[in-house]
Specification:
Helix content: over 70%
Radius of gyration: 25 Å
Organism: Acidocella aquatica
Number of strands: 0
Strand content: under 5%
Structural class: mainly alpha
Number of domains: 2
Keywords: Membrane, Transmembrane, Transmembrane helix
Protein name: ABC-2 type transport system permease protein
Distance between the termini: 82 Å
Length: 477
């Protein structure tokens, strides 16, 4: 009856916990059917893409280069997610000390959690790459099925590295700063991928071609640096070597961390003394509205990853700046800037109001104040709207300087999408992680889907408003 839990039981329990924490499970009544439909659509698109790939085969060297680039990007994208996931499973759940006091061998718990993180970070990329692998296999390219074991093997290496980095960072800086490092890593990688995609707009074709030729392997790509790429292409010996290498790295990291995990020093590193008395102190504002407004803005600034997630959502400003400065010319002219800024306004508003709603740890305390319930909601809406408008002030000024005729339509669209998404986010906030450790995730994917839809509708309306002949080609004759 009291026999220590075996590895299979622990692994299934870890998978169950991770699955219960999935945003799909929390919103299954609304999301599972759309997810299945989207999955079938992706598989259909992959079949069409695979048909084109089979008709136009690439030489081995180019295939190896493509595989290497994919593995490189997957590695860094997985690593940033694995770092935050490792912090959550070690310090966020609050059950590690309880498990260490149980008769379960500590190393078994650590191994299960490392494998759980590996599976969680690999899942979206395995699903995305899997639809292409399935489609290629349908057309007789069975080698493409190597995508499944190779991405899982890469995730195992990433998880081992992430746990080692997290233990070191938490020991030096604490879990919150370590999580922030994971967010910054994701931000840097996302910006790098975006910049690489925009490189043809800034670099001459000759220089860009020379760059890719320098990366292109010669002949059948001899050398150790191409082993993993060949494994992704389904070559038996490189694939076997890649799997053995990933297992070796995992075992090495597990052995190195096992002693610290068993002694409890990993979890003990999470506890740090609180801030100074001066930082914890504060003064009430002149009135209730000002106090509640500042409380919501404080929640926003304290949210982990607020800077990186704001920058992610603001990448739309890169083409906007390029168009306004004349470095990028589009067929529709400067008018395309207006719908882009409207869409960005809606996404920022939805994000900010969701942070304020999800990060409030004591809504019942504010509800006990001698003010109307609608007063608190209005303060949150004003705070989120204020933060959004502060960020949008500079690009709007740029539109005014470049083409002031667009300003009335732009402001009308921004006002509409701002009010719509603030009201939506107050009722259906998007999925976010609470600011403090040990807190459950809040929000629903339905809010995220509806928010994108609302922003898109307002953007389309503004585009039609500033470009009256945008749909002229639909008219007969």
């Amino acid at each position: 009856m009291f026999k220590p839990a075996g590895f299979p039981w622990l692994f299934l329990n870890e998978a169950r916990v991770l699955w219960r924490g999935s945003i799909l499970v929390r919103t299954h009544k609304y999301v599972l059917a759309p997810v299945i439909i989207v999955g079938l659509m992706f598989q259909g698109i992959a079949l069409a893409l695979a048909a084109q790939i089979v008709r136009h085969p690439l030489p081995l060297g180019q295939m190896v280069l493509v595989a290497d680039l994919n593995l490189f990007f997957f590695f860094w994208l997985m690593l940033s997610r694995a770092m935050t996931a490792a912090i959550d499973v070690l310090y966020g759940r609050g059950d590690v000390d309880f498990l260490l006091a149980s008769p379960i061998p500590p190393g078994r718990v650590l191994a299960v959690r490392m494998l759980g993180v590996a599976g969680s970070v690999a899942a979206p990329w395995v699903l995305l790459g899997g639809v292409l692998a399935n489609a290629l296999a349908v057309f007789g390219q069975a080698w493409a099925l190597a995508i499944y074991p190779m991405l899982l093997a890469e995730a195992v290496v990433v998880a081992a590295l992430a746990f080692a980095l997290v233990v070191l960072l938490v020991g030096w800086t604490g879990p919150k700063l370590a999580r922030r490092a994971g967010h910054m890593l994701a931000l840097v990688m996302g910006v790098f991928i975006f910049a690489l995609g925009q490189a043809p707009r800034f670099l001459p074709p000759a220089a860009l071609g020379h760059f890719w030729l320098a990366l292109l392997p010669a002949g059948d790509a001899p050398g150790l640096q191409y082993v993993f790429a060949k494994g992704l292409l389904g070559q038996p010996w490189p694939l076997a070597f890649s799997l053995v290498f990933s297992g070796t790295v995992f075992l090495f990291a597990w052995v190195m961390l096992d002693a610290r995990f068993a002694s409890g020093t990993i979890t003990a590193a999470a506890y740090r003394p609180g801030g100074s008395a001066a930082r914890q102190g504060g003064a009430f504002r002149a009135g209730p509205f000002a106090a509640v407004l500042m409380k919501n803005l404080r929640l926003l600034t304290r949210f982990p990853g607020v800077v990186t997630q704001t920058v992610y959502r603001s990448l739309t400003l890169v083409p906007v700046v390029m168009i306004l400065t004349g470095r990028l010319r589009t067929g529709s002219g400067v008018e395309i800037v207006a719908p882009l800024l409207v869409f960005l306004t809606g996404q920022l508003a939805l994000f900010f109001i969701s942070v304020m709603v999800g990060s409030d740890e004591s809504p019942e305390l504010a509800a006990s104040a001698p003010v109307a319930p609608g007063f608190l909601r209005r303060a949150a809406l004003v705070a989120a709207g204020y933060a959004t408008l502060v960020l949008m002030a500079l690009p709007v000024t740029g539109v005014l300087a470049r083409d002031g005729v667009l300003l009335p339509s732009l402001l009308l669209g921004m006002a509409g999408v701002l009010v719509s998404n603030l009201a939506l986010g107050l009722r259906l906030p998007i999925p976010l992680v609470r600011a403090d450790f040990g807190k459950a995730q809040t929000g629903t994917v339905l809010g995220l889907i509806l928010g994108v839809g609302v922003s898109s509708v307002w953007s389309l309306a503004v585009w039609l408003l500033v470009t009256p002949r945008a749909l002229w080609w639909l008219l007969p004759g």
